[in-house]
Structure formats: C-alpha cells, structure tokens
C-alpha cells in the first residue's frame, strides 16, 4: 500500500513537468511586414537572424544553395491580387520565398508550398516563379530585414537587407484596372450621392487613366445630381486638359461663384481663381 501511495505522489509531482508549456524567445525573432500597393496587399512573414560577428555570405549562408531566406520556417510571401515580379506574372496567393545566393547574382524563388520548415523539403517542381536579381552593397544591417523602400499606387520595391548586402525586387500591380472595375460595378444602377461619380471621375483624372469619355460621363452624372463647387471645378480641369480652355474658364468661374456663395474652403477657391487667371493668360484672354 505504501508503494502505491509513493508512486501516486511521484506521479503528481512529475505531472506539471510532463505538460509544461515553456515559452522562450526565439534566437531569430519572427517578424511580419505588410504594405498596400494600390489595392493589393503584400505581406512577408519571416524570422530575423543576426550577424553576431559571423561570416554570412559564403559562410553561414552558402553560395549556390537554396536558402530559406531567414531562419526557422521558410519566409512566407502573400499577395492579395495578381502581380508582376520584375516583369513576370505571379498569381494572387501565398508562397514560400526561397533564394539561391550567388556572388554576383541571386535567384529569388516563389514556391507554391507555403508552409515549410527551412528549405529542407523544397521541391523545385512546385515553383510558381523564379527571378534573377543583382545584389547591392549597403550599410551594415545586424538583423535581417525585409522592407518596402519605394512605394507608389502601381508598384513597390521589396528589399532584403542583411549584413552589408541588399537584394531588391520590384512588384507591379494592376491598380488602375482594378479600380476601374470597382468603379464600374459601384456605379451600375442607382446612385444616390453625387460624391460617388465625382470620386470616380476624380480618381480617373488624377491617375491619368485612358478613359476620358467615360470619366466625363461620371462627372456629368455627379453635376446632374447636385451642381456644386467641387464637381464643377473638376470638370473645368478635365476640359482644360482636353484643350477646351474657354469652356474650362467659363465652368471654373461658375464654380468659384458657387464656392463663395456656399462658403467653401477659401484656400481651394483661391486656387481655382489662380487657375482661371493662368488659363486666360495662356490664351491671351
């Protein structure tokens, strides 16, 4: 009986050790960076190894071998829309990102098997895309980092920085086409707010999209719903861009009159008055 009780007591004491959930910091901390490029979200999840005084390129990271591009799990790369990487198409989805470092050129790989530990189970047959990039030198970077140093609504540069090396590649999106598709769908049927077709025309105008006639229909629709300073000013700018300066001046003057009556932003109305003056000077009026 004593032996049974002793065994039970030992089991109770050891039970917490058997089921202990010890959380410890990773040697290479995990990181996630997300960047919106127009209407496309780009997300990179990776682990950040440190230099720690080691020889990295050709040492810790061998040349001419597939690398997980970080530590622990392979780096994960996600795009919410179809994109182009250095001019080559990559469908929307989640990929593991591997690289093959070289002395003068790197291969960047987007593999369809997203969740992998390292690159140990990497299968080239699952590659969705491979690109060649040229590494550059830079300031010393202790912890490996992905960043987006250059971003527009249509494109972005992704840069891998570690030690004194920089590895960039370019992402291009179809923002204009995606926005137009969204606008056309939203403006189909009944629209109750003048601001909707106004915003659509404003985007098309400022993004310099190749749909001038369609954009003009949108601004006319806005004006028909509610004539105001903002949509009149926009249409005036659209007419001026088409070379119809006399029509643009007349409409801009009407916009200024309404803007002052409705006490719209004085600084914006003043900008329109300056535009009118410049347009008149350009045609000798």
What would you note in describing this structure?
This protein is of the alpha+beta class. It contains 7 helices and 10 strands. The protein folds into 2 domains: 25-172, no CATH class; 175-282, Serine Threonine Protein Phosphatase 5, Tetratricopeptide repeat (Alpha Horseshoe). Strand 6 (93-100) and strand 7 form a beta hairpin. The relative contact order is 0.09. The mean pLDDT is 92.
What does this entry show, briefly?
With 285 residues, this protein is of the alpha+beta class.
**Helix content estimate:** 25-40%
- Low-pLDDT segments, ≥5 res: none
Share of β-strand residues: 25-35%
| Rounded mean pLDDT score | 92
What is the terminal-to-terminal distance? Answer: 113 Å
Taking all Cα atoms into account, the compactness measure Rg is: 29 Å
Please give the number of β-strands. 10
Biggest sheet architecture: 6 strands, antiparallel
H and E string: HEEEEEEEEEEHHHHHH
What is the approximate shape? elongated
What's the arrangement of strands in the largest beta sheet? 1-2-3-6-7-8
Indicate how many domains the architecture comprises: 2
Q: Structural class from helices and strands?
A: alpha+beta
Number of helices: 7
